[in-house]
Structure to design on (173 residues):
């Protein structure tokens, strides 16, 4: 994965003539995912510390959790079915690295499923037994922490592999 990254280091990407708007848009989506994960985790931490009303937290959980899950599924589905095959056809040396990223997407699906299950449980408990709902927050915090760490690693790995390929082969320009 480091072959082209040495020739196209991250700090030089913005000044590269082939660092096109499409690449910037793709990376902006990654920044959005990181930020949504942070907002969600911070909201859970505030709820755990009783610094946020449970109903306000429920609204944030529904809004930001839905945005994160729905957009991540759509984004990595597009990558797996359209974007990554395009990259492999441009440079088959990277099939192994791209396969690793696709396997990460399988792991991400499992993380998102667990988050959705735990978030739905919290929201149901809030309706059925509000005083018991707070017991669900620690599990939610664990899941959002895991997703945040996973996204930091995965998205950086993905960018470090993909952007040099795009720049080297003048793709997406």
């Amino acid at each position: 994965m480091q072959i082209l990254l040495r020739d196209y280091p991250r700090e030089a990407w913005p000044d590269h003539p082939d660092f096109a708007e499409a690449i910037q848009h793709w990376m902006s989506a990654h920044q959005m995912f990181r930020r949504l994960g942070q907002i969600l985790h911070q909201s859970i931490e505030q709820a755990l510390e009783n610094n946020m009303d449970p109903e306000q937290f429920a609204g944030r959980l529904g809004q930001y959790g839905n945005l994160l899950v729905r957009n991540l599924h759509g984004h990595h589905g597009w990558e797996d079915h359209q974007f990554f095959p395009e990259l492999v056809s441009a440079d088959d040396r990277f099939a192994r690295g791209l396969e690793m990223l696709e396997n990460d997407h399988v792991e991400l699906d499992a993380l998102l499923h667990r988050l959705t299950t735990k978030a739905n449980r919290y929201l149901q408990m809030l309706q059925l037994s509000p005083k018991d709902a707070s017991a669900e927050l620690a599990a939610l915090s664990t899941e959002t922490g895991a997703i945040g760490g996973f996204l930091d690693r995965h998205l950086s790995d993905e960018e470090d592999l993909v952007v040099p390929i795009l720049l080297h082969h003048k793709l997406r320009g």
Residues 95-172 form one domain. The mean pLDDT is 93. The CA atoms of residues 90 and 169 lie 7 Å apart. The first helix runs from residue 3 to 7.
